[in-house]
Structures are given as C-alpha cells and as structure tokens.
Amino acid sequence: METTLKVKLISHTMNPELVIATAGKLCYSPSNIDDLMEKQTEESIEKFVNMITSIGHGSVLEHTSFTFGIEGVSRSLTHQLVRHRIASYSQQSQRYVKEVQFEYVIPQDIKNNPILVESYKNHMEDTQRLYDEIVDKLMYDYIYEEDKYGKIIDIQLKKCNIDKNKFESWKKENKDNEKFVELLRESYKKLYSALEKKAIENARYIFPNACETKIICTMNLRSLINFCHHRCCRRAQEEIFNLAWTMLKEVEKVSPLLAKSLGASCQFGPCPEGAMCCMMPFEKKR
Ligand SMILES: Cc1cc2nc3c(=O)[nH]c(=O)nc-3n(C[C@H](O)[C@H](O)[C@H](O)COP(=O)(O)OP(=O)(O)OC[C@H]3O[C@@H](n4cnc5c(N)ncnc54)[C@H](O)[C@@H]3O)c2cc1C
User: Fold this and answer.
1) For the whole model, what pTM was predicted?
2) Is 101 inside a domain boundary?
C-alpha cells in the first residue's frame, strides 16, 4: 500500500531562543549567567539570535536541538538523511520487525503515469509475496536442513528449553504439512520467534528502496541549518526536499524566529551549485 510523509516535532530544547541568546551574550559579557538570563527581553533575544545566525557564530546554535518523528518515507530517503552525520538517528529495523504488509513510497513522476504506477504496485506486491515465501522456506530449512545452517536449531532448542526427542517427533509429524509455519507458532512460540528473526534478517535483502520506514532524528540548530541549506534546495531529490520543508515548518510553529535561519542556501547568499544551479532561486531571507 502506498504511504505518505508524516513529520512531527516531538521534542525540542526548552526556551530555545533564550538559550541561544544567553549563550551568545555570555561570550561577550562579564556578567554571570543568572543575571544574563534575567535581563533578557523579547527584543534582546531577537537581536542576539539574529546577530548570531547572521555572523555564523555556529557553535552557539548547537545548544538548541530539535527531535523529529518521521514516518511514511522511503529507505531511499533515509539513506540520504543519515548522510547528515551531525545528528542522532533511531530507525525501525528490518532485522527485527517483520513486514507483514510493507508500505512504499511512489515518486510523483511515476505517479503521473498510470501504466507505470500499475507495474510499480505489482512489483511491490510480488516483492511482498517473495519475502513471505523466503521467510517461510528459511524457517522450514533451519529445522529440516539443519546441517546447512550451522545447527541453528540445536542452539535454539537449548535456549528455548525444548526437549530434543519430543521436538524430533513433532518434526516428523509435520514435515509435509502446508501449514507448517502456523503449527510451529502454535506449538513452539519462542522457537518460532527466534527462527523468524533469523529468517527476516535474510529475507529483507529483497526489499526495494521504495520500502517505507520510520525514523526519529535529532539535530541541533547548526546542523539543521546545514541540512536545510542542502535539502530545501531545488536540486535535492523531491522526497527529501519535501521532508526538509516540512521540518522547517514544524520548527516555525514553535519558533518563527529560529525558523528564519532555515531554508535553501540561495536564501542566504549566492547559489553554491555552480553549473548545476536550478535558476529558480527562493526568496531571500537575509
Ligand atoms: C544535491 C545533493 C547531491 C548529493 N549527491 C551525492 C552523491 O552523489 N554521492 C554522495 O556520496 N553524496 C551525495 N550527497 C551527500 C553529500 O555529499 C553530504 O554527504 C550530505 O549532504 C551531508 O552533508 P554534510 O556533510 O554537510 O552534513 P553533516 O555530515 O551533518 O556534516 C555537517 C558539517 O560538519 C562538518 N563535517 C562533518 N564531518 C566532517 C569530517 N569528517 N571532516 C570535516 N568536516 C566535517 C562539515 O562542515 C559538514 O558540512 C549529495 C547531497 C546533495 C544535497
């Protein structure tokens, strides 16, 4: 099933503007920190934040961070996202989470062509079928072709406290049963979970880049500025471009002042893309 982008700012530094203004002011003031914080006014905070973001006193901006919950994005997107190294990420694992019915992203250019969309969706459904088939077949093989798999089954029987002789008779009874996997789940739940985990970490190799994923990402403001410079740019790929602008709008909801420092590179200076320039610059912010 097709999925769509969902972004939520799930947390951020308390009083982010005050923290930045105070940290910035401390660098140039003989006062103590309590005094500096008490004396801050809305005007002084705005003045300092604007000054710090415009002169590029980047380290001060690192005191404020934003945590985004991101869903409905492709693995292709998260591969690009995690290239932004100055950030923290936690991503749903395909090793540990079984894709019962995986969702996927369809790029707009493909969506514009109904024939391509149909083939695309068919490919996704075929992939899901093959994934399920691989998982079931591997679980069967771990039990019935044990010599090929380094005795995974022996280890798991020990870990799950299962009597080997009893299990051997279960094996014989169910060897040709089409519902082998379901029966294993009913009879030996713990063993089933362990073997399934092993099977899905192999089966996941067939998933396409389009496969939906979920990720939580925390960036400090300095890193977020760099991320937006690159990814709010029209040269960025559509999906991450949309993500970057949505993240910017989430920050805008809690701090219009800090959001003023976010946007494509061209909004703050000359386009850095050279010959690759899109020739459609966004409105300048500074
Ligand atoms: C349009 C576009 C096309 C791209 N195409 C490709 C591609 O074809 N192939 C590809 O591999 N990548 C590609 N990238 C990814 C790009 O090269 C960066 O890896 C990505 O944008 C992260 O940027 P960053 O390094 O500035 O961010 P971060 O990793 O968050 O780093 C932030 C800043 O910290 C500093 N920094 C971080 N690590 C180091 C370090 N080790 N040494 C020195 N300074 C450091 C730098 O100043 C850096 O700008 C593309 C990106 C864009 C936007």
Assistant:
1) 0.94
2) no
